[in-house]
Amino acid sequence: MLLRIALRKNTLKLTALITAAALAVAPIPALAQENKGLPVLRDTETEQLLREYTRPILRAAGLEKQNIQMVIINESAFNAFVADGRRIFVNYGAMMQSETPNQIIGVLAHETGHLAGGHLSKLREQLAQAQTQMIIAMLLGAGALVAGSRGGNANSGLANAGAAAIAAPQEMIRRTLLSYVRQQEENADRAGVKFLSATGQSAKGMYETFKRFTNESLFATRGSDPYVQSHPMPAERVAALEEIARSSPYWDKKDDPALQLRHDMVRAKISAFMERQDTVYRRYPLSNDSLPARYARAIATYRHGDLRNALAQIDGLIQVQPANPYFYELRGQALLEGGKPAEAIAPLRKAVQLSNNSPLIEMLLGQALVASDNKAYTEEAIAILRAAVARETEAPLGYSQLAMAYGRKGDYAQADLASAQAAYLRGDNKTARDLASRAKTRFAVGTPGWVKADDIVSAKPLPGQKSN
Q1: How does 172-197 read in b/e, with b if 16+ C-beta sit within 10 Å?
Q2: Are 330 and 314 in contact (CB under 8 A)?
Q3: Average pLDDT per run of 10 along the chain, which is 468 residues long?
Q4: What total number of domains does the chain contain?
Q5: Full-model pTM
Q6: Which domain holds residue 3?
Q7: Is residue 218 a part of any domain in this protein?
Q8: Is 45 domain-assigned?
Q9: Main-chain phi, psi angles of 229, to 5 degrees
Q10: 160 part of a folded domain
């Protein structure tokens, strides 16, 4: 029994080591975190920009119809990774630290290379083989240890050999797996450059990003064993990348100025929502009159309680770009959080219209309609929120606001069900089950509402969530 436990601990440790190595590359108000699972941020503007960055690359990779989603992680470090075959995860820090669209697009192309190459499924196969090999090696080594212990001191050499028989294969297997991961990274680099060239984009940004990683990690990796690295040694990797990247006819192609502006706007938005006010003003001082700087200062002003001044700044932004839905979204959000939900309705209606009915902005509008405490808005709020959660099924805000609207209407069965759905998405599984159980008593058995409530009662936690 002790041997089994030891074997399981070692195989789990190996799996964790290799999986972590394979994943790394080196906000529903805006930028709002919503659940207890992965620290995910939601923001329509940022997500839309990332989708536009990846769409041509996914098309070139033959993955356009796979419905690959972009997920923003609440981490300031530069990182992007794939953890399954349907999502690319990007730290907000990767957007902040990418000065040009081309730099983050290069990283996304690399991650698409992992998806197109089926690297995750292949890695799982390698892990399964490695675990089997490790178990056999450890069993053989354990047998030698037992034999040595039975023979007393005379067989101490056999016992030592048994210990070596356990340790040596583990190290060999670990090195083999790490070598496999390094090869996957190199293949993803090549594939990324291929996709960029196929879409008429430069790989210079990809090279610049990895070159920066090289400069930052040069001291840390000096003298290290290249065979126990999860990724290719930085200098070797960048040299190989530069060679293939420079061969592209698009090496010197620049980003479109309009795209660069949108990129800078998103970076300003992230800074304003995620960094301290003094940091924001150092990045975007009053002497900087660019649109991104004005955007950042307007957000920082409203977030720190100066609603009147913030609204004046936002109105100035709207005058410059009257068709920008995110300026109206910001105005509505500032009014809503400033305790003026009725005044937030008009700009949020405009934001929904200009954004082609973005479900996250619809949820914000639904929240304003509910918070206005005007019963005349109840049915409209329910209709808008139902449409939003039908298209954006993993956003707790939509369900929590829908629950309030149903409660105002007196439909307590639907209110309990929506509350249960919100709790489940937040990772509060006990509350979700309790509310869903109560909802079942309010619905007729077998009706759609009863079935949905029953599903929640018997549901397992979402990936990344703990059962409670």
Answers
A1: ebbeebbebbbebbbebbbbbbbbbb
A2: yes
A3: 31 35 39 61 96 96 90 92 85 95 95 78 53 48 45 52 48 56 79 94 92 64 41 72 92 96 98 95 97 98 94 98 98 97 98 97 97 94 97 93 96 96 93 96 95 92 58
A4: 1
A5: 0.78
A6: 1-255
A7: yes
A8: yes
A9: -100, 140
A10: yes
